Amino acid sequence: MAHAGTVDRVDAEPEEPQRLAAEARDRVRFEEEALALADQVYRVARHIARDDADELVQETYARAFRSWRSFQPGTNMRAWLLRILTNLNIDRGRRQQRAPQMQPLEANDYFLYDKLAESGDGVSDEDKVVERLSQDDIVSALSAVPHDFRDVLVLVDLGDFSYADAAQILDIPVGTVMSRLHRGRRILKRELADAALEEAT
């Protein structure tokens, strides 16, 4: 019986190094796949955090690497990383105690054109409107959109995520994604209209 027990111990001992080696391989594979998505993660971070994008991406990857065991292989790693990023950005926003700007929304989807018409410009050509807006104007207008709405705009309109993916990343219902997207677009249009009018004067 003692001999059998010894054999059991000898058989069991090699399992631990094999398990550790398999875990190390899994971690390396995870890190390679995650780092391959760094450009995409950074692009989203630039839109939602602007100057703090580098720091936000670094925090995202640090948290992802610490929590790598919680990632389910075979699921959408990009969505998983972006969920970490958006959660960190939300936490950052709360720390800065940035309250959403509660401004009345314009009822008309053609707010920009109406504003330009009121200014006496009579612009009817979309190209003329776009010419007035620089990239800085667009980035500034996007940064003026309240945090919750901006995250949805960035994911759906700039990141080309579906409503369902955005809902998963932000951990909110799909209906909330649609509502925030609608309101966010309205706010963005108003900000762009103001920028275009400033360029015109």
Describe what you observe in this structure:
The protein is an all-alpha fold and 201 residues long. The chain has 2 domains: 2-95, RNA polymerase sigma factor, region 2, helix turn helix motif (Rna Polymerase Sigma Factor, Chain: A); 111-200, Arc Repressor Mutant, subunit A, CATH 1.10.10.10. It is built from 11 helices and no strands. The protein has helices spanning 2-12, 15-36, 38-49, 53-66, 77-95, 111-118, 126-132, 135-143, 147-158, 163-170, 174-200.
CATH class of the largest domain: Mainly Alpha
The largest sheet is:
none
CATH topology of the largest domain: Rna Polymerase Sigma Factor, Chain: A
The CATH superfamily of the largest domain turns out to be RNA polymerase sigma factor, region 2, helix turn helix motif
Count of helical segments? 11
Class by SSE composition:
mainly alpha
As for the number of domains, it is: 2
Contiguous low-pLDDT stretches (5 residues minimum) are 122-126
Helix-strand pattern: HHHHHHHHHHH
Summarize model confidence as the mean pLDDT: 76
Quickly give the CATH architecture of the largest domain.
Answer: Orthogonal Bundle
What is the share of helical residues?
Answer: over 70%
What distance lies between the first and last C-alpha atoms, to the nearest angstrom? 96 Å
The whole-angstrom Rg is 24 Å
Number of strands: 0
Strand content is: under 5%
Which overall shape is indicated by the principal axes computed on the Cα atoms?
Answer: elongated
